[in-house]
Design goal:
By secondary structure, the chain is of the alpha/beta class. It starts with 6 loop residues before the first strand and ends in a 6-residue tail after the last helix. It is about 55% helix and about 15% strand.
Length: about 180
């Protein structure tokens, strides 16, 4: 199985640890790490909240789809996707077909802890972030599960431990 894994794509809700765990995986495997949100910001020269303000969520999602299409064509990358990337069928198709998708599963409680001081999340600029996260998870969880080859809980382990568990599940060993 190890030969078949040429990319690892991480999906899951905001605050699941996709970027942190993704960096750990890429470091262990000596692969390139890319965060799709950071890539969008680098290509546009604007941050995500600004894109949401000017182009709306639909404009952002279009940019996200273009970036995911390009990034999933690479080899030996670990890609951390935005929490809503799974909302578009074309993204799910590209992710599932071009790499091994890991759903980093976490609770709304943990999401709240991890995103409490992050102002760079437009969908959480609401009077009731808990209700918003609960709503988003109810909508997106079935899509995360649909696209994923593996589901990995992140609730009680460090990012490094989760990365090692992913490698074990995929039958991969870090290069010496």
């Amino acid at each position: 199985m190890a030969e078949a894994v040429n990319n690892i794509f991480l999906v899951g809700p905001m605050g699941a640890g996709k970027t942190t765990i993704g960096r750990q995986l890429a470091d262990l495997l000596r692969w390139e790490f890319v965060d799709s949100d950071h890539e969008i910001e680098a290509r546009t020269g604007a941050n995500i909240p600004w894109i949401f303000d000017i182009e709306g969520e639909a404009g952002f999602r279009q940019r996200e789809s273009q970036v995911i299409d390009l990034l999933t064509r690479r080899h030996h990358i670990v890609l951390a996707t935005g929490g809503g990337a799974v909302m578009r069928e074309e993204n799910r198709r590209h992710l599932h077909a071009r790499g091994t998708v890991i759903y980093l599963e976490t609770s709304v409680e943990r999401q709240l802890e991890r995103t409490a001081r992050d102002s760079n999340r437009p969908l959480l600029q609401t009077p009731d972030p808990r209700a918003r996260l609960t709503e988003l998870l109810a909508l997106r969880d079935p899509l995360y599960r649909e696209v994923a080859h593996h589901v990995m809980p992140t609730e009680r382990a460090s990012a490094r431990d989760v990365a090692w568990h992913i490698l074990q599940d995929l039958g991969l060993r870090p290069p010496r």
